[in-house]
Each structure stands twice: as structure tokens, then as C-alpha cells.
């Protein structure tokens, strides 16, 4: 059947969860393109025959093939575009440097699209407001002005909190700090959240 | 030090005629944020609000540099700055997301805009949208379209990328009373009818019915 | 909308605190605050009240409506009426949650209040489900939602709007004319 390969590309996307990216299916695309080439060539020769020999019975077949061509074009474009949307989302999730495991799944042109997207976004953010611009990939969640109790698991040295206070993070010392300032240090294993 | 902040509440230069206090400016930003979050289409650009808010933030940050560290006052200002910056970023993110989602339609609308009509895109957004379109078109061409038969080497982006659905339902609160809003029937058996929107009342209806009222500020999406 | 964003909006609500420090009037971008004097009440937004409370710099005065008797009355009213009754604060749920989680020692009968507010919430959300259900099945084009709070709307937003939009698309595709032939790709 015509268009089967094209539909397979679409099915492949449906199997993926949101935000996932599978390996770029270069082979699948090439097979669709090959089918398109064959359909087009058959149509060209039938069109010539229909014209020169007045074979109007060929017209329905020609129309059918053309519909298949359009459907194939649509499947390929849909496959490629959907992947771009996923790649775009990755910029917001991972920042401007993608993990190698994801880059590995992208074709060279997708990487190029991604780099251009990064550039456009950076340019946009730099041009916001004053000279410094505004990084809108930050502040994804509403700020929480709450403090938590933390214990220091290792010596970390001086640490400045947002209001400018400098505290000494010494092993086993306990502190009452803004949550948003500690989150990273907790992940790094410098601090632990004391749950009273 | 007490005076470091006292000028923050006036606009740094009293140049504009529409005297808006910083508090009103923040309220306007929050309205724009919620409208943008809930409206299915891109709303009119509010560049002047964005610029003024950025100015306020920069000004306040500047003042904070001069303040004694560890001061309780500084931490209160810091928290307020964080809250405002979140709303501003979230607002701009909502817009950028819509621009990415509907770029061919948004650029088309911008192209057909009559001179003097307000723009839907800020200059930065316009530049971004154009680049996004060019980048995407050139990508599709390189990877696939140029390998297709000659009559199939272009894709009409306006047809290919879905349009915003203006018939979506939205929740709204009324700021200024409106009379005789026509509600279109949902089925052939129903008839259209008119409703009045009382000040302060809340409704669920199709966006297309009240789109101009959102734009004018008479109703607020919630 | 993420619930944390509704909570963020609720944190703008003003509450009264009694601070234990003194500070001159402050000029915030969003308006003036203070002055703060030890032992004297002052109105501040909830985000600030919670922060000061956590740093043990103030005591929060519970909002007037956060009172067992008043809430019992509201609960009875809510159970009696079929429609949504007016609620004392557009962010009653978030305020209750935030104040009870972070300042419960300043709220008399905190546990009873928690239960009462949850009862009121449950009653209202059950009504909301019923009306959403009838709105969809009756193919209504407009509904008046007075007295509903943002958090309540938010619990049903995604589900209700997605259902309505899907049904609309289904109906549109039943129409004879080939509506919306956009090539989605």
C-alpha cells in the first residue's frame, strides 16, 4: 500500500511519551521520499501518455497517485515538525546545553535548528528592557518567601544569602535560611533539611 | 538609607501624561499576565508596561546595592522584586509560547495590520517570530522538501500550522458592566440570546463572544 | 494554571500582624507598608506576614472570618443552598492552608477551622462538579459563576475546557460543510 511508510513515521511519534525524543528515523524518511519519487515518475509518464494519446482513463489513477504524494508530504512534514516541538521543549527543560544522550538522537539539521533557536531566544531575552535584558527561562515557579532549617553536612565556607548576610557554613552547624537559596546546596549534599 | 527607596514610588521621570503609580503599573501587569495565560490567541503587546516594570525593577535593584547587608528592609524589597520578576517572566513566556505555536498566523496578522493600529508583537517578539519562521522553513526544506518532486517542494505554513481556536471557552470576571452580549447557540435547536454582564460577576462562555471586551479591559480572564 | 500560581495570587491578600520590631514606613513598588512598631498592628500582604512569622518577627492576627462560629454558619448555609453562597474571602482555601501550615500557633482552634474549611470546600466542589456536568450535557453556551473562587475554578478548568472543546470539534465535524480543513502536522 502507498503511504504506509509515511503513516509509520506518525505512529512512531504517537508511541513516544510527551517530551521524549527517539532516534531520527532517517531510513523511514528516505523510504517515503523514494516512494514519492516513484509515484511522481509514474505520474509524469501517465500524464504524457494521457495527453499525447488522449487516454482519459488514466486520469483517476493520476489523481490517486497525486493524493498519495500529498499525504506522504504531509506525513514527513508532520514528523519533522513534531520533533522540532519536542526539541524546542528540551531547551526550556535542560538549558542551552543538551545532554549527549539526547543530542545523539538528533540529526545534524535538527542540531542546527536547535542552535538557531537558542540564538533567537537569547537575542530576544537580551533585548528585553534595559541593557541587561531578562532571562525568562528562570523564575519558572512562583517564588516562595519561606525559610527552612538546614544542617551543614560538610565545611563549605562563606555563603551569602539574598539580603546580603554572610554566614559560615561549617560542618554540623544549623541555619535558618531562605528555601530557594538552599535548594541547590541540598542537592549537592552540602546541606540537609532538618525536619523538626 | 531611609531615603534610598523613597523615590521608588514615583516614576523616575514624570514624563508621561497618563499618571500611573507603580502600584497601578503592577496591577496592569498582573491583568495582562492572566489575560495572556487564559486567552487562546496572542493579545496586544503591552511593551510600555513591560518597559516600565523593568525600569522599576532595575531602579530598585540599584537601590538595594547601596543598602546595609542583612537589613530586614533589604530582604523585604528583595522578596517583592522576586515576585514581580516572576509575573513579568511568566507573562513574557506565555506570549513567546503562543508566538511559537501560531507563528505563521501571527506574522500574517502583523503584515496585514493597518498603519496606526496597535501591534500585536513587540519589536523583540517580531524579530523572534521572523527568525523562528525562517529557521523552521529552512529546516524543512533542507531535510525533506528539496528532495521531493518539484511540485511538492513547498509547504504553506499558514495551512500547515493550526490556528488558535477562538471558540474556546474561557472564564471571566466583569470589570465594567456590559449590556446585550449575544450568546450564540450551541446547536441548531437552540436560539441565540442576549445577556447583561454585571460588574463583578463571573462567567463561562466562548472567547470569541467577548474577545473585544478582554482587549479593552472591560472584562478580565480568570 | 498551576495551583502554586493561584497560591501566589492569594499571597497578595492583606493580613494584620503584630510585629516585634520597629521599622520606618517602606516604599515598595506595589505600595507603601508600615511603619512597624513593636506591639502595634499593621497590615501587610500575606507573603510578607508568612516570612516575618517564620523569622519569628511577628504574630499573625487571624482574619475575622477564620472563626469556628462564623465558619459553621457558612458551612450550614452552603449545605442548604443549591447555588454557591458568597464566601468571606476570594482565597479562603489558600489562606487557610497557608496560615494553618505556617502560623497555626496564632490561630485559635486551628484543627476545627481546618475541618470546617475543608467541609465548605468539599460541598462547593461537589456542586461545581454537578453544574459542570449539566453544563456539558445540556450543551449550554453560557454559565454565570458568581461567588466561585479562582482555586475552585482551577480544580475543574482543564477537564471542563478540554471536554467542551473536544465536543465542539466533534459537533463541527458532524456538520455537512467540510469545516476546518486545516492540515494539522
TrEMBL record, chain A:
Residues 41-128 form the GINS subunit domain. Residues 144-195 form the DNA replication complex GINS protein PSF1 C-terminal domain. One of its GO terms (biological process) is DNA strand elongation involved in mitotic DNA replication. InterPro entries: GINS_A (IPR021151), GINS_bundle-like_dom_sf (IPR036224), GINS_Psf1 (IPR005339), PSF1_C (IPR056783). GO terms for cellular component: GINS complex. It is found in: Chromosome; Nucleus. Keywords: Chromosome, DNA replication, Nucleus. Pfam families: PSF1_C, Sld5. Its main location: nucleus. Belongs to the GINS1/PSF1 family. PANTHER family: DNA REPLICATION COMPLEX GINS PROTEIN PSF1, PARTNER OF SLD5. Component of the GINS complex. Required for correct functioning of the GINS complex, a complex that plays an essential role in the initiation of DNA replication, and progression of DNA replication forks. GINS complex seems to bind preferentially to single-stranded DNA. Required for correct functioning of the GINS complex, a complex that plays an essential role in the initiation of DNA replication, and progression of DNA replication forks. GINS complex is a core component of CDC45-MCM-GINS (CMG) helicase, the molecular machine that unwinds template DNA during replication, and around which the replisome is built. This is DNA replication complex GINS protein PSF1.
TrEMBL record, chain B:
One of its GO terms (biological process) is DNA-templated DNA replication. GO terms for cellular component: GINS complex. It comes from the Eukaryota. Keywords: Chromosome, DNA replication, Nucleus. The keyword Nucleus applies. Residues 164-222 form the DNA replication complex GINS protein SLD5 C-terminal domain. Transmembrane segments: none annotated. Residues 73-142 form the GINS subunit domain. It is found in: Chromosome; Nucleus. InterPro entries: GINS_A (IPR021151), GINS_bundle-like_dom_sf (IPR036224), GINS_Sld5 (IPR008591), SLD5_C (IPR031633), Sld5_GINS_A (IPR038749). Required for initiation of chromosomal DNA replication. Core component of CDC45-MCM-GINS (CMG) helicase, the molecular machine that unwinds template DNA during replication, and around which the replisome is built. Belongs to the GINS4/SLD5 family. This is DNA replication complex GINS protein SLD5. It comes from Paramormyrops kingsleyae.
TrEMBL record, chain C:
Pfam families: PSF2_N, Sld5. Residues 2-61 form the DNA replication complex GINS protein PSF2 N-terminal domain. The keyword NAD does not apply. InterPro entries: GINS_A, GINS_bundle-like_dom_sf, GINS_Psf2, PSF2_N. It comes from the Eukaryota. Keywords: DNA replication, Nucleus. Required for correct functioning of the GINS complex, a complex that plays an essential role in the initiation of DNA replication, and progression of DNA replication forks. GINS complex is a core component of CDC45-MCM-GINS (CMG) helicase, the molecular machine that unwinds template DNA during replication, and around which the replisome is built. Component of the GINS complex. Belongs to the GINS2/PSF2 family. This is DNA replication complex GINS protein PSF2. The lineage of its organism: Eukaryota, Metazoa, Chordata, Craniata, Vertebrata.
